[in-house]
Design a protein that fits this description.
This is Filamentation induced by cAMP protein fic. Keywords: ATP-binding, Nucleotide-binding. It comes from Clostridium putrefaciens. One of its GO terms (molecular function) is ATP binding. InterPro entries: Fido, Fido-like_dom_sf, Fido_containing. The protein is an all-alpha fold and about 240 residues long. It has a single domain (about 5-240), classed as Fic-like fold. It is built from ten helices and no strands. It has helices at about 5-15, 20-40, 50-55, 65-85, 95-105, 135-150, 155-170, 175-190, 200-215, 220-240. Helix 2 (about 20-40) crosses helix 3 (about 50-55) and helix 5 crosses helix 8 (about 175-190).
Length: about 240
């Protein structure tokens, strides 16, 4: 299941250290694609070119302040994730809250980085997240699960981290963006490049998640992650 992406990762590892300028160009493009698509999945109406302009510090007429903040905040959250990877920090609840705090900064400061205190329903999904009083315990169990899965393939572990986190749905808003950041955090920690879940694949993405939550069958979601990772590895191998 993971043979091909591991083969490509080995090819990429053999080319290290990677050319600095090329690496910088690929990273900047991925940061743009990651930010645009992750926000678009959640309903942000900025186009990819408008997202690029906002990242450059320019406002776009006719778009809300919230949509502008979602772009800037997501960029800042990616930078924070990169720092965690660089410093080889272990995964903690505190980090997850910090990622979420960055996502909702200036949008909903009361809930930024704080677990929800009320029940939520995931629109269009059969899965219902746990009641709010169960969140703390389930998040602690998630960290324990994560620390116990030493032998699990890192790509599967990254996908399962996303599935379990978004199933708990610990925050009022921003769970999707946070879960995709956590997925890529785990990939990057293990030497893989980040993946981009495309907005155009939103239905496939949500369906695979809901199937994982309601049937405990995670194969479709793990396959989706593998497919997107394969594409990102191809980008690196093409230009480096």
């Amino acid at each position: 299941m993971f043979r091909e992406i591991d083969r490509k990762k080995k090819l990429l590892d053999n080319k290290r250290p990677l050319p600095a300028y090329t690496l910088k160009s690929i990273r900047e493009n991925l940061l743009l694609e990651w930010t645009y698509n992750s926000n678009a999945i959640e309903g942000n109406t900025l186009t990819i070119l408008e997202t690029k302009v906002v990242l450059e510090g320019i406002t776009v007429g006719g778009k809300t302040l919230k949509e502008h903040l979602e772009v800037i905040n997501h960029r800042d959250a990616i930078l924070y994730v990169e720092e965690i990877v660089k410093n080889q920090e272990p995964l903690t609840e505190w980090q997850m809250k910090n990622i979420h705090r960055l996502i909702l900064k200036g949008i909903d400061d009361n809930y930024a980085g704080n677990y929800r205190d009320q029940q939520v329903i995931i629109s269009g999904a059969k899965h219902t997240p746990p009641e709010s009083f169960l969140i703390k315990e389930q998040m602690e169990n998630l960290i324990k699960w994560y620390n116990d899965r030493i032998e699990m393939h890192p790509v599967e572990k990254a996908a399962m981290l996303h599935i379990i986190f978004v199933g708990i749905h610990p925050f009022i808003d921003g769970n999707g963006r946070t879960s995709r950041l956590l997925l890529n955090l785990e990939l990057m920690k293990n030497g893989y490049p980040p993946i981009i879940i495309k907005a155009e694949n939103r239905l496939k993405y949500y369906s695979a998640l809901d199937k994982a939550h309601t049937t405990n069958n995670s194969k479709d979601f793990i396959t989706l992650v593998i497919e997107e990772l394969d594409k990102t590895l191809d980008i690196y191998l093409k230009y480096i």
